[in-house]
Amino acid sequence: MTVLALLCVPAVILGLTAVAAVVELGLAGRAFSGILYVYTLATATNGSAFAGLNANTAFNNLTLSLAMFIGRFSWLLSRCYAIAGSLAAKRVVPGSMGTLLTGGGLFVGFLSAVILIVGGLTHFPVIVLGPVAESRNAGQHALLNAV
C-alpha cells in the first residue's frame, strides 16, 4: 500500500503529461516542459499557476480536473487510510536486536535515501529529456521554415 501511495501522484502527473503531449488537443502550441509543469501543479498542489496555459478548453478542463481529483482525493487517500488501518490493527511487539529504531540516524538515512531515489527515478528523466525534446523540435521547425 505504501508503494502504491508513493507512486500515485507521479503516475498521474507523468501519465496525463504523456497523453497531453501526444494528443493534438493537449499540445495547443505548448512546450513539453510547460505541459509537465501544468499537470504537476494540478496534481500535487492547487494548480494556481498555469504558466500561460489556455486552460479553458474541454480537453484541459477534463484532464486537469481528473489530475486534481486523483492526485488529491480518491487514489491517494484510500491508500493512506488502508495503511493507517493496517497499522492500527497490528499488535505491539517489543523491540529486539533486529529492530530498526525510528528515532535513530540510520532510519533517517534510509528514509532520506528512499525519498531521493524514488523522486529522482520518477521525475529526473522527464525533467532532463523535456528540454532535449523541445530543442530537437525547435530545430526541426527551423529546418521546415528555412525550406
Biggest β-sheet description: none
Mean pLDDT, to the nearest integer, reads 78
Distance between the termini: 55 Å
In terms of DSSP E residues, the strand content is: under 5%
**Low-confidence runs (pLDDT<50, min 5 residues)?**
141-145
H-E string = HHHHHH
Record field, number of beta strands: 0
Structural class comes to mainly alpha
**What is the general shape?**
elongated
How many helices? The count is 6
Quaternary structure type: single chain
- Rg, rounded, reads 20 Å
Q: Which percent bin holds the helix content?
A: over 70%
Which tags fit this structure?
6 helices; disordered C terminus; elongated; single chain; mainly alpha; 147 residues
In short:
Helix content is 76%, strand content 0%. The protein has helices at residues 2-22, 24-27, 32-44, 58-72, 74-89, 105-146. α1 (2-22) runs antiparallel to α3 (32-44), α1 runs antiparallel to α5 (74-89) and α3 (32-44) crosses α4 (58-72).
Description of the molecule:
This protein has 147 residues and is mostly helical. The chain has one domain (2-146). It has helices spanning 2-22, 24-27, 32-44, 58-72, 74-89, 105-146. The model is unreliable at 141-145 (pLDDT under 50).
